[in-house]
Amino acid sequence: MQMLLILMTEFGIQVEPQFGFTLDEVEQIAEVGLANGFSTLWFSDHFMLDADAVDKVLLDPWLLMTALVTANKEIRVGSLVFCNSYRSPPLHAKMVATLDNLSNGRLEFGIGAGWKKMEYEAYGYPFPDDLTRIAQLGEAIQIIKGVLTHDKFTFEGEHYHVKDIVSFPKPVQKPHPKVWVGTMRGKEKMLELIAKYGDGINVAWTFSPSQCEEIFSKLDKLCKVNGRDSTEMGKSVGLWTRCFVSDEEMNHTITENAAKRGVSEKKYRERISSALWGTPKMMVERLRQHLDLGVSHIILMLPHGEELDQIKLIGQNVLSKL
Q1: Which of 59, 64, 269, 277 is the most exposed place for a label (fewest CB within 10 A)?
Q2: Residue 75 burial (CB < 10 Å; 0-12/13-18/19+)?
Q3: What is the mean predicted confidence (pLDDT) over 238-251?
Q4: Which has the closest alpha carbon to 40: 11, 67, 19?
Q5: Which residues contact 222 (CB under 8 A, 6 or more apart)?
């Protein structure tokens, strides 16, 4: 049974454009990733790392993904996740269909309610309360799916109103690319939204297998309440990841990082306890626990600047052992 789960699981690499990636670097990550068992590059959606990031080049994720699928004809691309507030739902639908066509069906579409208040304020976007942003996201997903699947589409909601939208081409993937809904907390309101409108859930970045199991169990029950088949709901997990060649290297890094951050080693170990940090053997054991939960996509956030070495280390010593 576990062999079947492994064969059904896709492994991906998270790229944070806000860290300053160039297109050449992203293309290298994709090439090395494909050679080491990874199928997908996932991109976050931000405009600025922080208020003082004047030294960071931040390429738009939609355009970066478009450039990548043009240069690389094998890699899949995904968003983890696009912020609903930054583009109108019909525009998101148009961009989804366009990129799915340009990539010949290699897009995974993830979307979320948004959270980075500093970014909203800097760019002049309204930042309503959590419940409002969640409600907006629910309406947005309905509009996006409607635009992608109808010749003409009209929607009247509390937050969005669209009338007789015509949008072609339609996506290559039918009826549309899977709509992943991201959550960094896994709370009730977001789970209710996902159960109603999502095709899959993503939890990130420091959820242990037991925490994931609890969230997935709640989602399964909510799917049943909403008349949906929970077995058709995709499950994905994003994990802060660092692979070490030995226990000694790992312990040294933990001690060093704790000192840099001015916290006790005990406290730092608690912080990373749910992350995918460890030797290859430890990582294989942890990943198998996620696989047993029916996770279909596992996305690794690797140390910035060390991506290529980590990809090779994990591909050769972890993924190959699964």
Answers
A1: 269
A2: buried
A3: 96
A4: 11
A5: 191, 192, 194, 195
Tokens of 53: 């990031």
Q: Is the pTM of this model over 0.85?
A: yes
Q: Give 159-179 pLDDT, tens digit per residue.
A: 999 999 999 999 999 999 999
Report the top-level CATH class of 2-321: alpha beta
73 closest CA partner among 116, 113, 27, 136 = 27
Per-residue confidence band for 206, with pLDDT thresholds at 50, 70 and 90: confident
**φ and ψ at residue 117, rounded to 5 degrees:** -55, -40
Three-state secondary structure call for residue 76: strand
Q: Are 314 and 300 in contact (CB under 8 A)?
A: yes
Report whether 73 contacts 146 (CB < 8 A): no
Rounded to 5 degrees, what are φ and ψ at 256?
-65, -45
Q: How far apart are CA 35 and CA 32, in angstroms?
A: 5
